[in-house]
């Protein structure tokens, strides 16, 4: 299973939902970077993704986007192959 990285904050409901969805798919290890605790990490996230909002999720080297994009990938059947890569 590829590495899963999620930029998140401690009070973000979409971050929680994204984590729940990933865990339901068998993901046991999610590296979380708390951008609310480290403003430099938020700057890095914004430079890498072009987005300000959390979560921002990477599966392997692929930027998936936020929770809405993650859920859309799941509904379209494209999330499982990405996690299996």
Explain what the structure shows.
The protein is an alpha+beta fold and 85 residues long. 45% of the residues lie in helices and 21% in strands. A four-stranded mixed beta sheet has the order 2-1-3-4, sandwiched between helices. Helix 1 links the parallel strand 1 (4-8) and strand 2 (30-34). The radius of gyration is 12 Å and the shape is globular. It starts with a strand and ends with a helix. The model has no long low-confidence stretch (mean pLDDT 96).
Q: Descriptors for this entry?
A:
Glutaredoxin; globular; alpha+beta; about 45% helix; about 80 residues; four-stranded mixed β-sheet
What's the arrangement of secondary structure elements?
Layout: E1 4-8, H1 13-24, E2 30-34, H2 39-49, E3 56-59, E4 62-65, H3 67-75, H4 79-84
Parallel strand pairs: 1-2
Antiparallel strand pairs: 1-3, 3-4
What is the CATH first-level class name? Alpha Beta
Mean pLDDT: 96
* Sheet with the most strands, sense and barrel status: 4 strands, mixed
Going by CATH, what is the homologous superfamily? Glutaredoxin
**In angstroms, what separates the terminal alpha carbons?**
6 Å
Low-confidence segments, given as residue ranges, are none
The secondary structure category is alpha+beta
In CATH terms, what is the fold-level topology? Glutaredoxin
Q: Which outline best applies?
A: globular
What is the count of structural domains? 1
Widest sheet, order of strands: 2-1-3-4
Q: How many individual helices?
A: 4
Q: Helicity range of the residues?
A: 40-55%
CATH architecture label = 3-Layer(aba) Sandwich
Query: Which oligomeric state applies?
Result: single chain
Order of helices and strands: EHEHEEHH
Rg result = 12 Å
Strand content: 15-25%
The number of strands is 4
């Amino acid at each position: 299973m590829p590495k899963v990285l999620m930029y998140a904050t401690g009070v973000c409901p979409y971050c929680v939902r994204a984590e729940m969805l990933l865990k339901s798919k068998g993901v046991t290890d999610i590296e979380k970077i708390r951008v609310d605790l480290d403003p430099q990490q938020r700057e890095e996230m914004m430079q890498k993704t072009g987005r300000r909002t959390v979560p921002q999720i990477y599966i392997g080297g692929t930027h998936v986007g936020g929770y809405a994009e993650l859920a859309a990938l799941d509904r379209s059947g494209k999330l499982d192959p990405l996690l299996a890569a």
